[in-house]
Amino acid sequence: MKKRLSLKTVIVIIVTYALLAVSLFPYYYMITQSLMPWDQVDKKIFSRELTLRSYDYLLHTGGASNSLMWVKALLNSFLVSFPTAVISVVVGLFVGYSMTKLKFKGKGFIYNSLLFQMFFPVIILLVPRFMLMKSLSNSYTGMILPMAISIWAIFMYINYFKTLPNALFEAARMDGAGDFTIIRKIAFPVTKSVSTIVFLSTFMGRWTELMWDMLISPDIQMQTLNVLISTQFKPMGNFPGPMYAASVILTTPIIILFLCFSKHFKDGISFMLK
Amino acid sequence: MNPKKTKKHNSFRSVFGWLLNTPYLIYSLIFFLIPLVWAVWLSTMDWNLMSKEKKFIGFDNFIRLFKDDKIRASFVNSYRYLVPIVLLCFLFGLLIATLVHHLPDKIKGFTAVLFFIPYLTSGVATSVIVKYFFSYNSVFNRFLRDTFDLDIKWLQNETVAFAVIVGIIVWKMSGYYALFILSGIEGIPEEVNEASKLDGSTGFHKLIHITLPMITPTLTTVIVLAAGLAFGIFTEPYLLTGGGPNLATTTWQLEIYNTSFTRFQSGYGAAIAIANAVQIFITIRLISFLMNKLNKRFGW
Predict the structure, then answer these.
(1) What's the ipTM?
(2) Does B24 contact A110 at a Cβ distance shorter than 8 Å?
(3) In this structure, which topology does domain A53-272 adopt according to CATH?
(4) pTM here?
(5) Are residues B7 and B33 in the same domain?
(6) What's the domain count of chain B?
(7) What average pLDDT does range A103-114 have in this prediction?
(8) How far is CA A159 from the centre of its chain?
(9) CB B18 to CB A250 under 8 A?
(10) How many CA atoms lie within 13 A of B107 on its CB side?
(11) Chain A stretch 168-227, residues whose beta carbon is closer than 8 A to a beta carbon of chain B
């Protein structure tokens, strides 16, 4: 027997999706405008003729000596965000595992140091970090290293490992598995949902970082897409098509990543609160 | 197992524990501890970021803070941002979570994820587009001029510029906080819901007397997170208003950035950052304290 929807549920569905439509309208607008013929951009919210001219512009046009600068910027964004996310996951896994499943001298010290950093406003460190990394400006190392480790990610792992029974790891140890094997074969697979959420969040955080990247990479060839968009589009321009196209390129990779992993992600979020 | 072997085993365990933490410890030394000491030292210096010469001026930077209009504006603005952002994020988050909670199970998760999408947007993309939208020659403003003869300088108006920035942030964050609140609501045990039904508590009454008190720990998390966010605003005012008009939208982050890297008063910048950290610390503590009181009084 098919269950019929009550009137109340129907109303809830309508209200929810109306609200959703409002909240996602900027995306619709951004995407359609990026595909509009240039003489119609911002004048219509729907068009039958669509063109890739704005994207083509980004692909072929750049500043005077910087052809392909948009492609390079997209590549830079990936080359900075991907390693950052991987390092956050690996370090988080290592520290989380050792803090909860290993006994060793000095653990308390490390834990306190983590707690201290957790609530510390990083803005204080801005000027000294810049001084430290100045010689590495316009390099991927200079962009990645200072933001490579996320204390938040470490605590995600610590809290998750706390919920796992020690027996799981003890049993493997009894069977003679080495410590690295335990991490690779047990700790990593069982924390998949945390790893997903940590990877996605740190990737996104790095992808949308503005202040540090502006400081450390003034060279246009080494800028991330986020920084390049912030410097290239001035409101005086008459043809905003490419601005919408660049914004679409900046936003969609993250959204696609999240949608692909949304199942794991939901597990992760519900855990975050426990 | 003989004791000798155990001891050896333990010391190996200890080495392994430290080994796993080595990357974190090296990172903390280089990118946390050294910069921290350095920042405190810099805050007592008169220094322009580039030159080799630094002049020790003791607490002068900190005294200067109290006479600086920009700092006063950042201090006041941090609370002006905090209140509407926390309230609106909380209200919209609660609204979205309540709606999604009442959806049929099949589309629940999917819908919650869709509400989450604005959170993924880079502040740069939103700011650039919003700035264009409000610029003098934008279609919107041309339309207002041609049809209503209205010439409004949106981002040059203190109230509008401030509201626009708050609006962007609330739009971006509400769906994210809604996920937290939703998890809280879904975590309420079924018995509680049934008991409240028996007592005839529904709708708004139930929200105030049962749902909200049941999820106060989640709400505390959300409010503390939103407060932390409000203190960290940078991208939007940097790109939209540059902190103006008349410092109405400026933030600590913006002032620290500008003082250190565009006005090249880096010693002073470090002092501002320390003042900001103290303020954040006290405010977040205060909010947690108040929320705990609330939790004790109304929570379950």
Answers:
(1) 0.86
(2) yes
(3) MetI-like fold (1.10.3720)
(4) 0.88
(5) yes
(6) 2
(7) 89
(8) 21
(9) no
(10) 15
(11) 179, 204, 207-208, 210-211, 215, 226-227
